[in-house]
Amino acid sequence: MKINNKKNVSNYMTFQLVISALLFLIIIGLRYLGYYLFSGIFFLTALLVLIYGALKNRFIFEYENSGQVVSIKNYQWLSGGKKMPVFEMPQTKIIRIETKERIFRKYLIILFSNSSGKVLKKSIDITFCNQNQTNQVLGDITKSLTAKTQEPTSKI
Fold first, then answer.
1. Three-state SS for 26?
2. What CA–CA distance (Å, rounded) separates 23 from 16?
3. What HEC string does 125-144 produce?
């Protein structure tokens, strides 16, 4: 199963770039016409749009489950598709998964055990995944977790 939010991030970033360009064109036009107060107001608005964009820090999220290994990759929209594997783990090592929402961010939190049995935690930014995509990721991993706990053990 493959899930990604590339379309959501691309649409949102394109919209934000168009809005920023329009605001800066309005600022230039108002300055040219001599309306310095209004151009200052539009400049502050454009600055707030850019700060909001920096706070959101758009990452494209890709989830892939091959049946044995869960692979999650994150990369920035303007990175040219250079994908960095953030998390690759056999499904048998994953203990629990949950989401946590902050003011401007949404995180996928995965608890897993390493080779020595120690429980580790990995937080992955999934801010631009919609609720359906988040539910699909949680459902897919949870389904494999419940199948793992319900496997019959063979008696020797």
1. helix
2. 11
3. ECCCCCHHHHHHHHHHHHHH
**Total count of residues recorded for the chain:** 156
Count the Cβ atoms, other than its own, within 10 Å of residue 9: 20
89-144 pLDDT, tens digit each: 888 888 888 889 887 788 888 888 888 888 889 888 887 788 888 888 888 888 77
Distances (CA, A) of 5 to 55, 58, 80, 91: 18, 10, 16, 22
Tell me if 111 sits within 8 A of 93, measured CB to CB. Answer: no
Two tokens at 118? 């120690």
Q: Which helix (H) or strand (E) holds 91?
A: none
Given a contact cutoff of 8 angstroms between Cβ atoms, the answer to whether 118 and 134 are in contact is no
Distance CA 73, CA 137 (A): 13
Residue 142, Cβ neighbours under 10 Å: how many? 15
Tell me the two tokens of residue 65: 């489950």
pTM above threshold 0.70: no
